[in-house]
Design goal:
Number of strands: 25
Helix content: 10-25%
Radius of gyration: 26 Å
Length: 499
């Protein structure tokens, strides 16, 4: 192993330990805080590699995107220096600690000690924000996997960074297909070029692993068989006698390792694994474990899956992993859909006295079965209006629960919920609108954004453009009305109830 390297400015870096390794090289921690070294294992000539790195450095990637990009190239060898926040580690550690635990109790302990559901949702929300910013700039990351995602080592923090920016390209400049087995999209596995839609598929695979501790396609089909026909809904076991024989009994010519043009290609896969259902899962040929339209591949070991995926997240997972999502990349949920689903899920998480975090829709803690304390549920009804000759007319109305305020704690309703503006849904670009504190049946409200608002308390109306106001919820009616900026197109009504 190389002990030290020099960058183009002659600065020396001492390599301490390997953080991770992928198909294009390895990343090392150095003695300098927040400084990492990427050593490439690719066969490019040094001058060609420098040109490649210069292309990456010219991309519209800014420091606030939390992507560790090449800062300086190394001399005499292919590699570069990148900077990232210190005291971070790969998100794969969180995933593997849970998956490799020997007992259910140990799995639960590992899940909780690494931040539980609440922190995992925060991490994924930050990562989805990075993916959305890449999408807005027409950039493809191309190899999203747990080894390339780094998170705060301190479980009270939720910083997220991406490393290994070697493959980032404008979507119009992607000319190849590559990725990490088990995390690449079916179309990439089948030889198509990487895309923003493939990135979101990889994100979904990672999100399912992080939230549930289980693989999205690891179910009965993989447990019981080695072949699967989704049209026939048939799982079968492959035997040595019938491999390479078609339905008529005729022996097939073995063309494995030969592409459509007849040219041989290099195969780095284990033949036994690639010819089985593991490969079929990567190619998008089997249903995911919670597919509502095809239960053939269910995973009987539910573990904590039902308690970590709410309805909004389920719709995102199913939209990605259903048959249409697997075969039609453009139909998959976008990062923006994921951000909204993750934020809504996060806003509805409560914490038990045992330390376990779970959704407020559950009547008791899934871990210790202690009854959930009373909380305050904040809901928003949006009325979209239209001006007509006869006055204003209601076009449609939509109501949703958006925020749980735990007893004795505060929670914030953001501008993205009340009056969305450009990019407000992206983590880090949002700002608080109203702050709520719930204690002993009393809801304390603060108008942090100074939004022109009206509180209707029973039959009384109050202007509430700033400051704080306390409202007893037991009993009584309460509405906080926030008109839109134009004042005529939509009205958002905030209500609260005890659950």
């Amino acid at each position: 192993m190389v002990k030290s390297v020099f960058d183009e400015n002659g600065i020396k870096y001492e390599l301490m330990r390997k953080l991770g390794e992928g198909g294009q090289g390895a990343t090392y921690l150095t003695k300098d805080p927040g400084v990492l070294i990427k050593l490439s294992n690719q066969s490019e000539m040094y001058d060609e590699y420098i040109e490649l790195i210069d292309e990456i450095r010219s991309l519209p990637i800014t420091q606030d995107m939390h992507i560790a990009c090449p800062v300086y190239v190394l001399i005499k060898q292919c590699g570069y220096v990148m900077q990232m926040m210190s005291d971070m580690h790969g998100i794969d550690e969180l995933i593997l600690d849970v998956m490799e635990a020997e007992s259910t109790v140990e799995k639960l302990d590992k899940y909780q000690s690494s931040g539980g559901l609440r922190r995992r949702l925060r991490l994924l929300l930050q990562l989805a924000g990075i993916m959305e910013t890449l999408r807005q700039r027409s950039l493809v990351y191309a190899d999203l996997s747990p080894s390339n995602v780094f998170v705060s080592r301190d479980v009270s923090q939720s910083e997220v960074w991406l490393i290994d920016a070697d493959n980032i390209r404008f979507s119009t400049d992607v000319r190849s297909s590559f990725g990490t087995p088990e995390f690449w999209a079916p179309e990439v596995r089948n030889g198509e070029c990487n895309s923003m839609y493939a990135d979101i598929y990889s994100f979904s695979i990672l999100a399912h692993l992080l939230l549930t501790g289980q693989k999205a396609f690891f179910g009965n089909v993989l447990f019981k068989g080695t072949r699967y026909d989704e049209d026939a809904r048939q799982i079968s076991e492959e035997t040595e006698d019938d491999w390479g024989v078609d339905d008529s009994g005729e022996e097939l010519e073995d063309d494995w390792g030969v592409d459509d043009s007849g040219e041989e290609f290099e195969d780095s896969w284990d033949d036994e694994e690639d010819n089985g259902v593991y490969s079929m899962a990567e190619k998008g040929l089997i249903p995911w474990i919670d597919d509502p339209d095809n239960r053939d591949n269910q995973n009987p070991d539910v573990f904590i899956r039902p308690y970590t995926i709410d309805e909004g997240l389920f719709q995102c997972f199913n939209g990605t992993f259903c048959r249409k999502g697997r075969s039609e990349p453009l139909s998959r949920p976008t990062p923006k859909h994921w951000i909204k689903a993750l934020r809504n899920a996060l806003n509805n998480v409560v914490e038990c006295s045992c330390g376990w975090t779970y959704y407020a829709s559950e009547p008791m803690c899934p871990r210790c079965e202690k009854v959930r304390p009373k909380c305050c549920m904040i809901s928003i009804r949006t009325d979209v209006m239209e001006e007509t000759e006869n006055g204003r007319k209601l076009l449609y109305s939509d109501k949703r629960d958006v925020l749980v305020v735990e007893s004795g704690k505060s929670a914030c309703l953001n501008m993205s919920d009340i009056r969305p503006y450009a990019d407000s849904y992206i983590p880090g670009k949002d700002r608080p609108a109203f702050d709520f504190t719930f204690s002993q049946g009393v809801l304390d409200i603060e108008n942090k954004a100074g939004l022109p608002s009206v509180i209707i308390d029973g039959g009384e109306k109050y202007r509430f453009d700033s400051g704080r106001m306390a409202k007893s919820l037991l009993p009584g009616d309460f509405r906080l009305i926030v008109p839109s900026a134009s004042g005529i197109d939509r009205i958002r009504t905030v209500t609260a109830r005890v659950i």
